[in-house]
Amino acid sequence: MKITAAVARSLHAPLDFETLELDEVGNDEVRVRLVATGVCHTDALVRDGVLPNSLPVVLGHEGSGIVEAIGENVETVVVGDHVVLGFNSCGACPPCTNGHPAYCTDFAKLNFGGQRADGTTSLSAGDEPVGSHFFGQSSFATHANVAARSVVKVPSTVPLELLGPLGCGISTGAGTVLNVLKPEAGTSIVIFGTGAVGNSALLAAIVSGCSTIIMVDVVAKRLDLARSLGATHIINGLHEDAVARVHEITGSGARYAIDTTGNPLVFRQMIDVLAPQGKAALVGAAAPGTEALIDIGAFLVNSPTVTAVIEGDVVPQTFIPYLIDLYERGLFPFAELIKSYPFENINQAFADSEAGVTIKPVVVF
């Protein structure tokens, strides 16, 4: 069938709108008519060649839409279901079978390979293959044949125009807090970066009952939003020594910390703000080869636990409905992070995100 897609053809260039051919839905796939899709920093990193993928490709990995067809092996959804699209996984390796699909041994191939597991692509422009199945979906298109493990059935009580970012950025921030760090009520947490991931972590910290929630950034308007969402303290790293301020606020340092930036200097700050035996999580992506220095002596004395987290270590089929339930009960107001754009303005959505104007752009079809 003919579809319209935003195609990445050249590095550091705007996406091109093209009419492509979408092939037949596979046995283990679901055809989805996209209603909306989030624009994520990871899309920009691939578009610009920081993360590997071959061009041309249709990116997009925070889709939401309605099921139009299912493959013969699919039993999890039916035609007409509302769905959110998350990352793909094999379902058979040890991490998948142990409830950690974000650490699937085939994660890179299934999510960044630009094709199905069998090597085929679902998209073409005439005789030219176009990369598909980015994170199992390639949602920068009006329709997509999506890997069944990327599909999450959601209730129809919440507009699909809001739900796409639950597939990656919002789940990453919230899952890092709720699934990995698991802060106790009354404890302190520092979150570096007030984008969609950082603010989602903030909302999850409120759900967890953290009494001291410190947000660090260099963009004043983003910090103001974080305060309005419930941050107890904000620190502008352009004007303040973030490490000194955290110790001033907390006394002995923070119990928990998150770096959503992937910046080596921020990574070091994340470690340095911790109290003895504190816990920290890196979720921000960086270019291959990026390195950070730490003070080994101080690290030994404080003995922190530092981990990296992919996709919030979530099982999308259970965690996304959980976040929706929190939202419907007024406990997780992630819609405050979203600004909508028509699909034809997707390149503006990228620009606004990179400029810090918009926290979480969502393009609506």
TrEMBL record:
The keyword Heme does not apply. The keyword Zinc applies. Pfam families: ADH_N (PF08240), ADH_zinc_N (PF00107). SMART domains: PKS_ER (SM00829). Keywords: Metal-binding, Oxidoreductase, Zinc. Its cofactor is Zn(2+). GO terms for molecular function: oxidoreductase activity; zinc ion binding. Residues 10-364 form the Enoyl reductase (ER) domain. Belongs to the zinc-containing alcohol dehydrogenase family. This is NAD(P)-dependent alcohol dehydrogenase. It comes from Cryobacterium glaciale.
